[in-house]
Specification:
By secondary structure, this protein is mainly α. 68% of the residues lie in helices and 0% in strands. The longest helix has 31 residues, at 250-280.
Length: 931
């Protein structure tokens, strides 16, 4: 084991107070765990290579405790009563991290526990199932050696110890600081500085102390007072009511008010910060956070769990205890006793909370200054042909900072900002006199503008004084053109920003205009069917007409409520940019594919979980609307669609207020469901148009607002899923062209088709066949997997058994439960299909237009080489049914490598190079013509 002193090294290497506190908490956890190890028998200690004697463990525990005091002392030196809010904030951030860690632990335990069933063996409702499993998880967290509970306890201990010390002004090595400053402890400081006196009302007191509403209400309730009541009079009555006949002195009244300040101030700051942080978490992190915050400590077994604890819980906790404890010890010791730097500020939830303080600026400021500097090129003049290293470093760090702001990486932004400020200072050094070259002055002013925005005001003032002094200017010369001030650089940024935004307006308008149109090309009849989705999921529902008009009855349709709200557009927008109906439809579609929407819409199952039920039933009220083969009524799902639309409206309302997590969660959910559905398909079919359209709209939302993508990633959206969803557009394109070509072939006549037209038609049909070959290859790979075969065989057997039971007992009182059980086994087959699916590289490659064109060129070459275009229509039909050309083209697809077989790769490479040279030649020639 490394010597414990390395924990001090680890502590000292932390850049901010949050990470320092985390080291402190982790060290306390380590101390607690060694106390636990002390009680283990020697055989266990030997098995895990731990010190055997109690003395050694006690020594280890004492070392930990001693170090905790040492670290705490170092930590306390950084705080004064004036910095109490910062201390509070970092404890709230640390608690967020702890709650998420405990929540993950709890969720993992709940997922591994079997579902709860009633006396008949049927699964309980989702809510009841989660409640009981949650109680069991709380028991195990408290009794099975998990790290989470130790984290909570260590945090609570440090929180109370440190804040109490800060409140009372107990500074290590600064014992006389309050006396020297003429200030007392926190209560004295706040009472005098806030000027609380006999005229102060409760309302004024709350305002001065910055209490939030919840704390105000608690305080008023404690004294049974109203906001307008006089503070001193109410406290006097309170003191006197406890001792009849007593007359309260002014000193007693003041002391009672002072005594209330710390606890209520702490509570107000804590609740405010915790609420703010929770808002910044992704939906998935909020789920973990809520699990963690609701985890019971000092656990007492509820009555309904006592039998489980006796029969299963206690033995399960005992079997996990030692292993969990040892893993926990090793994990904590590795962090605390090594010199590894903690990366707490990179944690996504913490990072989001840090963003406003670490780098929460409008990145447009930085973008405008960067574009202004880039417009200077490499400078000008005989002596300045290349940019200096100082300039390059400064510009590079500005770009990194801009990127961190765009991606909302608060922790990174904080570090990069320090580097950028340093590089800007380095660049302006020696350049204070007025620059005689236009590019030099522009760059200097841009660097100074960055510093004016990012440095402390007093530090920047010193630079301004030095610059003006160097230019021979002083106070009184403010109107001189070369005089610089804070206002000068504020206006400089504003002017650059105005120019930048004017350029952006055209780009933004074009981007938002595109949201008014479909993203996927569809044949006319498919577009008519897709209109059913647009009509039913839109803000103002329209009763379907024409094909499938009977999909919903008048009565059911009347239940779809109008959403009368013009939400702002997603992403960058002009003030008049409103959310398009098409974007709303996509989010409402995704919102309807949630367990909440199904549950609130009255669709439930005794066997399937909410998520499983969505996957099982989702198609019945989404793709069923565009399916030619299914035309059953969706009346029973009307309320589900309504809930999806309401969820979309709620998400957009939150988005308008700056909370992007709910919208991102719906988008993530929609993409995942569409990927699940489409990736299980055995072939391309007409449903691809609707799925591709919704997926494309969502992907475009991620592109317009990068933060939505970040939140979706936190909610579990993988890069593979996003890529596959993006590829649906190319699948739809291939299917559309193939469909149109097949329809053309049906009515084709040798007399009215040229060889060139035949070539194009045959090529599009073969492209579709190549795509289907890629699907077959993936399915074949999946179906030959021994694990798939084994799992599917078992699922089919169970399904057939439940199907037989359901059909043979039509009068059973448990018919619905039997049907739910049959649905469950049917879903298990569906789940296995997804679990073992093989990634389709072909569609990923086809998503690039250049790849699509190159592959189509190769297929076209094969058609020309086979001279199919010279044959008659009847012969072409025959060849495209089972001819050699189909096998040949299908074999061009290679799943394991890239788009087509290696023998064709060289040709494609040559084609790409030839086209690139071609384009270069065109660009050099006048009017783009070839020379």
């Amino acid at each position: 084991m490394p010597k414990k002193k390395t924990a001090i090294d680890t502590y000292n290497k932390q850049k901010d107070s949050l990470n320092k506190l985390w080291v402190l908490i982790m060290n306390d956890v380590s101390a607690q765990q060694y106390q636990t190890i002390r009680s283990m028998d020697d055989e266990t200690k030997e098995k895990y290579n731990l010190p055997k004697g109690r003395e050694k463990i006690d020594e280890k525990t004492k070392e930990n405790a001693k170090l905790s005091d040492k670290l705490k002392n170092v930590f306390l030196q950084e705080y004064t009563p004036e910095k109490i809010k910062e201390a509070h904030d970092i404890f709230a951030l640390a608690m967020t991290k702890i709650a998420i860690e405990v929540g993950k632990e709890k969720k993992d335990i709940m997922d591994r526990l079997p579902d709860e069933v009633d006396e008949n063996g049927f699964r309980l409702t989702d809510e009841e199932n989660a409640r009981i499993k949650g109680m069991k998880a709380d028991y195990l967290i408290n009794n099975a050696g998990f790290m989470g509970i130790n984290l909570i306890q260590a945090h609570q201990t440090q929180y109370m110890d440190i804040l109490e010390a800060v409140e009372n002004g107990e500074y290590i090595d600064q014992e006389n600081v309050q006396r020297k400053n003429g200030k007392g402890n926190m209560q004295d400081v706040y009472f005098s500085e806030k000027k609380i006196n006999e005229q102060t009302t409760f309302q004024e007191f709350f305002f001065k102390m910055d209490f939030n509403n919840e704390t105000q209400n608690e305080y008023l309730e404690m004294y049974k007072a109203k906001a307008g009541d006089n503070l001193f009079d109410t406290i006097r009555k309170n003191i006197e009511s406890k001792k009849p006949g007593k007359i309260a002195t002014e000193k007693e009244i003041i002391n009672q008010i002072k005594g209330d300040i710390p606890s209520f101030m702490m509570k107000s700051m804590w609740d405010t910060k915790i609420s703010e942080i929770r808002t910044g978490l992704s939906v998935k992190e909020r789920e973990y956070y809520d699990y963690g915050m609701n985890t019971r400590r000092q656990y007492e077994v509820p009555k309904e769990l006592k039998d489980w604890v006796k029969t299963t819980g206690k033995s399960l906790a005992n079997s996990l205890f030692v292993d969990n404890t040892i893993k926990s010890v090793k994990k904590v010791d590795k962090l605390v006793q090594s010199e590894k730097i903690f990366e707490l500020q990179r944690d996504s939830g913490i990072n989001e909370a840090l963003f406003n303080t670490a780098g929460g600026k409008d990145e447009s400021n930085m973008s405008s200054l960067i574009s202004t500097m880039e417009a200077t090129g490499k400078g000008e003049g005989f002596f300045h042909k290349e940019n200096s290293d100082k300039y390059n470093k400064m510009l590079d760090s500005m770009k990194k900072y801009e990127k961190a702001l765009k991606e909302r990486r608060g922790g990174d932004a904080k570090d990069i900002r320090e580097e950028m400020v340093k590089n800007c200072l380095n660049y302006i050094d020696g350049k204070y006199s007025l620059r005689d070259k236009s590019f030099s002055q522009t760059r200097f002013d841009c660097a100074m503008s960055v510093l004016s925005h990012e440095m402390k005001e007093e530090d920047f003032k010193r630079i301004l004084n030095d610059v003006n002094k160097k230019r021979g200017l002083s106070k009184g010369n403010e109107e001189t053109p070369n005089f610089v001030s804070k206002r000068y650089y504020e206006n400089y940024i504003k002017d650059r920003l105005d120019e930048y935004r004017k350029k952006e307006i055209t780009k933004i308008s074009k981007q938002q205009k595109a949201t008014q149109n479909n993203r996927t090309q569809m044949p006319q009849n498919e577009a008519e069917l897709f209109a059913n989705i647009e009509n039913l999921y839109g803000k103002k529902p329209v009763k379907p007409q024409g094909k499938k008009a009977d999909i919903i009855s008048d009565e059911a349709f009347s239940k779809l409520q109008i959403i009368d709200n013009d939400f702002g557009a997603i992403g960058k927008r002009n003030p008049d940019s409103k959310l398009s109906d098409k974007d709303f439809v996509a989010v409402a579609y995704a919102g309807s594919l949630t367990p909440d929407a199904l549950n609130e819409g009255g669709i439930r199952s005794t066997q399937l979980s909410g998520e499983q039920l969505v996957n099982q039933k989702g198609g019945e009220y989404t793709t069923n609307l565009v399916s030619k083969t299914q035309s059953s009524s969706i009346d029973k799902y009307t309320e589900v669609i309504n809930k999806g639309r309401q969820k979309a409206a709620e998400a957009f309302t939150s988005y308008e207020k700056g909370d992007k997590a709910p919208l991102a969660n719906l988008l993530c959910n929609g993409i995942k469901h569409i990927v699940d559905q489409t990736s299980r398909s055995e072939t391309l079919n007409s449903e691809i148009f609707a799925q591709a359209e919704i997926a494309s709209r969502i992907i475009e939302m991620f592109k317009r607002d990068k933060e939505l993508g970040k939140y979706a990633e936190r909610d579990g959206l993988t890069e593979e899923e996003a890529q596959y969803a993006n590829s649906l557009k190319s699948q739809a394109k291939i299917y559309k062209k193939g469909l149109e070509a097949r329809n053309k072939l049906k009515s084709a006549d040798d007399a009215n088709m040229t060889p060139e037209e035949k070539t194009e038609m045959i090529t599009d049909i073969l492209m579709e066949k190549m795509a289907e070959a890629s699907i077959r290859k993936c399915n074949k790979a999946k179906e030959s997997d021994p694990r798939y075969i084994k799992d599917m065989k078992s699922a089919v057997k169970n399904f057939e058994k439940s199907e037989k039971e359901y059909k043979s007992n039509p009068d059973s009182p448990n018919l619905n439960e039997m049907k739910d059980r049959r649905d469950y086994y049917e879903y298990k087959m569906f789940e296995i299909e997804g679990k073992y699916r093989v990634k389709n590289e072909f569609f990923k490659e086809m998503n690039k237009v250049s790849n699509y064109n190159l592959v189509r060129d190769v297929v076209k070459e094969e058609v020309v080489k086979a001279k199919l275009q010279e044959k008659g229509i009847s012969q072409i039909k025959k060849e495209l049914t089972n001819g050699q050309i189909v096998k040949q083209v299908s074999s061009l697809y290679v799943q394991e490598t890239r788009v087509i077989a290696p023998k064709k790769k060289a040709k494609i490479k040559t084609n790409v190079k030839a086209k690139a040279n071609d384009n270069k030649a065109k660009a050099k020639a006048p009017n783009g013509r070839q020379p």
